[in-house]
Every structure is written in C-alpha cells, then in structure tokens.
Design a protein that fits this description.
By secondary structure, this protein is of the alpha+beta class. The chain has five helices and seven strands, in the order H-E-H-H-E-E-E-H-E-H-E-E. A hairpin with a 6-residue loop joins strand 3 and strand 4.
C-alpha cells in the first residue's frame, strides 16, 4: 500500500507559502479546535520544526496532507505536533508515510523518543500509531477544547537504523 502512496503523492518540506493551503485543510478537518494561522506560521517557519506537505505531482498547489515535528537538533525528544490527511486521500497509507518521514527526521536530529497526543475518540489514528511502535503512556483529560475530549499521550522509542547486507 505504501508503494502506491509514493507513486501518487510527493512530500516536501513545508514553506511559508504553504500556510494558506495548510490552514484550509486544518480548518476543514479540525473544525472546533483548528490552530490559528499565526500558530501554524510559527510552527512551519520555526527553527526547531520540521513540517512536510503531501501533494500529487499534477496538482502541487493542492495540499492533501501535512504533518509537523518539533525536535531541536541534538535533543533527546521530539514531538509530533500535528498530522492531517484530506478525506479524499485517506486509506491509502499517506498518514503512515508522513509519520515515518517525521520519525526519520527525529532520528536524524538525535531524538531517542518521540511523543504525541491523539484524540481518545480517534481509534483509527491510535491504531496507526501503535502499528508504528508508539505505546500509550497516559491520558490528558479534556485536552481537546471546546469538545472536552481526552488526549491519549503516546511515546515511541525511536528505532535505531538497521544495516543489512544487500
């Protein structure tokens, strides 16, 4: 499935010019708790952030997914800040590819652990994160406002790269 995503989508580092398209997706997916444009701009352009956008090569101006990592270089920890995939692009492995790219970048920056929060009412995302090696370490009650939904806090011990003989 992931191979299909590589053919259908490309990833690139997000830039300031991408913020309006990211915000369009953000507001459509996270209706009640979307980030502000100022917050997203700060994250995308921040020194310690690493944000990716996903698009189909024939429509590079249309962002079908994005994801962001906060991980200072040389720090032991990273945080997946956000991830979103447009409804029409779901169930194709794009979320997995975005997450794997962020985990890879966290490793490059020296992180040995990556954390994230996920809505307790989003079992699909929780399943994906578990499949990627994350485990639940706690709950933040009523974290997502104004809905009052709990956040499940998850942690990944970043796997070391493996070298095999070809």
């Amino acid at each position: 499935m992931t191979e299909d995503v590589h053919r259908a989508y490309q990833l690139r580092r997000a830039a300031l010019d991408d913020v309006p398209a990211i915000m369009g997706l953000e507001r459509s997916i996270f209706v009640n708790d979307a980030w502000s444009e100022a917050s997203m701009t700060s994250e995308v352009t921040g020194e310690h952030g690493y944000y990716l956008v996903a698009f189909q090569p024939e429509t590079p101006e249309r962002i079908d997914g994005y994801a962001g990592l906060l991980a200072p270089r040389g720090g032991a920890e990273g945080d997946i800040q956000t991830i979103a995939v447009a409804p029409h692009a779901r169930r194709r492995g794009l979320g997995r590819v975005l997450m794997q790219a962020l985990i890879g970048e966290a490793r490059k920056r020296g992180a040995t652990e990556v954390f994230l929060e996920v809505r307790a009412d989003n079992p699909g995302a929780q399943t994906l994160y578990r499949e990627l090696g994350f485990s639940e370490i706690g709950v933040r009650p009523k974290y997502y406002q104004p809905d009052g939904v709990d956040a499940v806090v998850m942690r990944l011990a970043v796997p070391r790269p493996e070298t095999t003989i070809a």
